[in-house]
TrEMBL record:
<dbReference type="InterPro" id="IPR000494">
    <property type="entry name" value="Rcpt_L-dom"/>
</dbReference>
<feature type="domain" description="Receptor L-domain">
    <location>
        <begin position="51"/>
        <end position="151"/>
    </location>
</feature>
<protein>
    <recommendedName>
        <fullName>Receptor L-domain domain-containing protein</fullName>
    </recommendedName>
</protein>
<dbReference type="InterPro" id="IPR053079">
    <property type="entry name" value="SPS2_domain"/>
</dbReference>
<feature type="signal peptide">
    <location>
        <begin position="1"/>
        <end position="21"/>
    </location>
</feature>
<keyword id="KW-0732">Signal</keyword>
<dbReference type="InterPro" id="IPR036941">
    <property type="entry name" value="Rcpt_L-dom_sf"/>
</dbReference>
<feature type="domain" description="Receptor L-domain">
    <location>
        <begin position="223"/>
        <end position="305"/>
    </location>
</feature>
<dbReference type="Pfam" id="PF01030">
    <property type="entry name" value="Recep_L_domain"/>
</dbReference>
Length: 387
């Protein structure tokens, strides 16, 4: 019985991974639904497969595209799925609602160069929102929404799936520039960060405060599940205000408390710090027994140094298990050595005596420098890194 279940499970997994490629394969079956041009204009739109619900090809709309919003709306009226690439740049559109019928975008990296087979919406100086109202699925290695200086929101109300094929990570890029009017919707963040979606976020932005949303707060409040703003916890903090907290959109700062553990944050699963700042700051907590955040699963931050720990109890700084768990949550396991305690890596905490043998490309050697909060300075002599 067990074996049978396993077999069915494996079968399903194999079938599901084939579905990943299904859209791409459908392009071979339907050559008449291929857009053989790239650049869209009055001329080339004659060749656009208007009647197809699945269109295959690269579509480029730019400042030279001489089609009105009405003409584009008519052209894309039947298109539900686009398999290939979509580039919208240098235009003066205020939104992309002419693509409101689009449900799925699938980058076809099998047929086109990887740079073409992407979703890129860049340098559109009048764009206020994307407004892709029916888009549920993005499958692409990269989604680049860059330098649209007047962008206020994304408006992708139906987005559910954002991933690359297989188990690869999708890069959701909005650049390091922060635009004053822009905020990202928590609903879009939810979609991008679903467990089955693997997404790297490079977004420097405020979070939109949703209207009339239940269990959302901007200051710690009893019963609040999503806190938009930084959370400062110091001595005397009333922990009931964060016991229900699941998602924090800001920095978690726990400084100079008497807490022995962080079980009062037992519902916290996600921290989003999208403003190029440290996400987790734990300093001066002398009574801590460990550094465990019971349910914390993901820390989203654009910063390499996602966490800062200093001046806490010895026991908590020796807690290598939590160190690994936090590093995993920040998806930094392969390429960054986080500081933990006195600039030690999790490996060094686990195997202090072996620290001299541990090699890594980012391990500072004799004359290298250490980084904290983006400030560079020579590594302390007594640090495990000062080999
Ligand atoms: C695009 O080109 C392919 C092969 O070159 C052809 O079979 C197909 O009909 C063309 N599609 C359109 C819409 O012209
Ligand atoms: C598209 O559909 C319209 C109306 O149904 C039809 O008149 C036209 O011939 C079709 N075009 C193509 C290329 O099939
Ligand atoms: C739009 O793309 C076409 C084709 O690549 C190019 O010739 C044209 O210069 C582009 N226009 C702008 C404004 O970038
Ligand atoms: C988007 O979907 C809604 C229903 O969910 C539908 O009413 C609307 O017509 C769709 N928009 C387009 C442009 O197809
Ligand atoms: C992703 O898939 C590749 C090959 O299919 C495999 O080698 C790798 O271990 C997988 N990675 C994860 C994190 O599952
Ligand atoms: C948290 O503490 C920092 C530093 O003391 C302060 O600048 C910030 O305003 C505080 N944030 C909140 C939300 O209390
Ligand atoms: C954390 O809070 C302490 C005092 O409460 C403050 O001094 C420190 O600057 C804060 N750190 C961050 C990163 O917000
Ligand atoms: C998590 O939240 C639920 C409901 O708000 C609450 O009953 C429970 O005690 C919380 N868990 C912790 C560890 O605080
Ligand atoms: C290492 O640092 C010392 C002191 O800053 C300096 O004198 C020396 O030249 C450096 N060596 C190398 C190889 O950079
Ligand atoms: C017509 C137009 O807006 N052209 C701009 C396209 O974008 C480049 C930067 O990538 C600008 O230099 C052009 O002025």
């Amino acid at each position: 019985m067990n074996l049978l279940l396993k077999f069915i499970f494996l079968f399903l997994i194999t079938q599901l991974s084939k579905i990943d490629c299904w859209d791409i394969k459908s392009c071979d079956a339907n050559p008449s639904c291929k857009f053989n041009e790239t650049f869209l204009s009055q001329d080339t739109s004659q060749n656009f497969p208007k009647n197809c619900s699945t269109v295959c090809g690269i579509v480029l709309i730019n400042g030279t595209t001489d089609l009105s919003v009405e003409q584009l709306t008519e052209l894309f009226k039947n298109m539900r799925i686009l398999v290939g690439g979509l580039h919208i740049r240098n235009t003066t559109f205020e939104n992309l609602r002419f693509l409101a019928g689009l449900r799925r975008f699938v980058a076809d990296y099998t047929r086109y160069p990887i740079y073409d087979a992407q979703l890129r919406i860049t340098y559109n100086r009048e764009l206020r929102e994307l407004g892709l109202l029916n888009l549920t699925t993005i499958k692409s290695s990269v989604v680049d929404i860059f330098r649209n200086e007047k962008l206020e929101k994304l408006n992708l109300p139906k987005l559910e799936i954002a991933k690359f094929l297989g188990n690869y990570t999708i890069q959701f890029l909005m650049g390091y520039d922060k635009y004053p009017k822009f905020c990202i919707e928590t609903q879009v963040l939810d979609a991008l960060t679903r467990r089955r979606n693997q997404c790297d976020l490079v977004v420097n932005s405020d979070i939109c405060i949703p209207e009339n949303a239940p269990n959302v707060c901007t200051v710690p409040t009893v019963g609040c599940q999503r806190l938009i703003g930084n959370l400062n916890i110091t001595k005397g903090f009333d922990v009931r205000k964060v016991e229900s907290l699941k998602r924090l959109y800001g920095t978690l700062n726990i400084t100079n408390t008497d807490f022995t553990d962080f079980r009062f944050l037992g519902n916290l699963t996600h921290i989003f710090q999208l403003e190029y700042a440290v996400a987790l700051y734990v300093v001066g907590n002398k009574n801590l027994k460990n550094m465990e955040f019971p349910k914390l699963r993901r820390i989203y931050t654009s910063k390499d140094q996602f966490a800062h720990f200093a001046d806490n109890s010895e026991a908590s700084h020796a807690d290598f298990k939590s160190c690994y768990a936090l590093r995993k949550a920040a998806l930094h396991e392969y390429f960054v050595w986080p500081e933990f305690g006195n600039l030690r890596s999790c490996e060094v905490i686990e195997f202090p005596s072996k620290s001299r043998q541990i090699e890594s490309p980012s391990t500072p050697t004799k004359n290298q420098t250490c980084y904290v909060f983006g400030i560079t300075y020579p590594c302390p002599v007594n640090s495990a890194f000062a080999l």
